């Protein structure tokens, strides 16, 4: 008969917690990134002369930081950045912006359908398609728990460190078939390099990748692949231009949009380190292909350009009218 030693169990738990705390708060960035990468892939990344996309994203996590990164990673403050660059019509209408979970209750949100988002992390999205069945208390509890966590310490993505945790309540976006598509542009030096389309994110998530000419690309990430081809949105050229405008101040980032009815585009979010730099595309040749699209020697040039004022749409587009959201 096997018996459990309570003292040994406590020691093991304390040891695990200590190791976790050392990883989060003590290890230098480079050591933590190497450890996390080895745990994920079984080999170490090259952070001295990075070549693959994931390696360069880890390098950028260490060396490319700015107040603009923090603003754009904050789902509340990013709205100002996007409105200044593209116009306010590209932003999903906000029903409430708050920093208190107690505000997520029926007397303060009167819409029948809405979306609750935390502004400082990933995955903090709660859909309400019917307020009469929405679990207000459970969402308040989950949101409060998320607001208590500084996302920076999980993967040391510096843009999350100084975000004030808050809550964004937005309009519910409809689609023609009941499934809002997400279209994500991976941009390198302000130029979209490839496109990811995500279907059915919250139920049966599938994804597919295209090049800028909408030819399916023969690679994959860790997610399930969409089985069939899809047509490009009729406003693809406009979306590509918007992605270029928003990504221009950065060496590399991902610009996400939601496509509502009639492919009506809405800004989603800006992500700087896809998968925290720990995801590798397969086959591995594409890791190098996309890594080659980032010229790390241009970091200082990009930093200097970023220090200027955020341009308005008219200024940025050299006198052309800002693209419409319709």
Structural class: alpha+beta
| Estimated radius of gyration | 21 Å
* Mean pLDDT score: 90
Strand order of the largest sheet: 7-6-5-8-9
Report the strand count. Answer: 9
Q: Indicate the proportion of strand residues.
A: 15-25%
Low-confidence stretches: 310-326
User: In whole angstroms, how far apart are the ends?
Assistant: 71 Å
List the total number of helices: 11
Order of helices and strands: HHHHHEEEHHEEEEHEEHHH
Q: Specify the biggest β-sheet.
A: 5 strands, antiparallel
Helix share bin: 25-40%
Please tell me what the overall shape is: globular
Keywords summarizing the entry:
single chain; 326 residues; alpha+beta; five-stranded antiparallel beta sheet; four-stranded antiparallel beta sheet; 9 strands; disordered C terminus
Describe the structure.
The chain is built from eleven helices and nine strands. The chain has helices spanning 6-25, 29-41, 53-63, 67-73, 78-86, 136-147, 152-155, 236-247, 285-291, 299-306, 313-316; strands spanning 94-98, 114-118, 125-128, 167-171, 181-188, 191-199, 206-210, 252-259, 265-271. It is globular, with a radius of gyration of 21 Å. Mean pLDDT is 90; it is low at 310-326.
SSE order and pairing:
Layout: H1 6-25, H2 29-41, H3 53-63, H4 67-73, H5 78-86, E1 94-98, E2 114-118, E3 125-128, H6 136-147, H7 152-155, E4 167-171, E5 181-188, E6 191-199, E7 206-210, H8 236-247, E8 252-259, E9 265-271, H9 285-291, H10 299-306, H11 313-316
Antiparallel strand pairs: 1-4, 2-3, 2-4, 5-6, 5-8, 6-7, 8-9
Helix pairs in contact: 3-9
């Amino acid at each position: 008969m096997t018996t459990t030693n309570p003292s040994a169990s406590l020691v093991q738990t304390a040891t695990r917690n200590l190791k976790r705390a050392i990883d989060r708060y003590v290890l230098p960035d480079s050591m933590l990134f190497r450890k996390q990468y080895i745990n994920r892939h079984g080999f170490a990344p090259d952070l001295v002369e990075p070549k693959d996309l994931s390696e360069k994203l880890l390098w950028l996590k260490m060396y490319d930081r700015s107040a603009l990164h923090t603003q754009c990673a904050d789902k509340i403050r990013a709205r100002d950045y996007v409105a200044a660059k593209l116009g306010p019509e590209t932003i999903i209408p906000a029903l409430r912006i708050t920093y208190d979970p107690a505000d997520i209750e029926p007397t303060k949100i009167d819409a029948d359908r809405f979306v609750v988002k935390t502004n400082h992390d990933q995955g903090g999205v709660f859909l309400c398609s019917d307020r009469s069945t929405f679990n207000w208390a459970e969402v308040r509890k989950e949101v409060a728990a998320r607001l208590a966590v500084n996302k920076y310490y999980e993967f040391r993505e510096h843009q999350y460190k100084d975000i004030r945790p808050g809550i964004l309540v937005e309009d519910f976006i409809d689609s023609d078939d009941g499934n809002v598509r997400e279209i994500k542009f991976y941009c390198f030096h302000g130029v979209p390099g490839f496109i990811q389309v995500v279907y059915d994110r919250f139920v049966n998530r599938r994804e597919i990748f295209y090049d800028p000419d909408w030819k399916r690309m023969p690679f994959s990430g860790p997610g399930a692949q969409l089985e069939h081809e899809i047509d490009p949105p009729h406003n693809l050229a406009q979306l590509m231009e918007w992605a270029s405008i928003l990504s221009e101040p950065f060496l590399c980032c991902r610009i996400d949009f939601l496509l509502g009815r009639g492919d009506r585009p809405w800004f989603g979010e800006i992500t700087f380190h896809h998968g925290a730099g720990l995801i590798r595309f397969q086959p591995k040749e594409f890791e190098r292909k996309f890594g080659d699209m980032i010229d790390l020697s241009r970091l200082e040039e990009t930093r200097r350009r970023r220090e200027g004022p955020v341009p308005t749409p008219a200024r940025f587009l050299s006198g052309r009218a800002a693209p419409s959201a319709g």
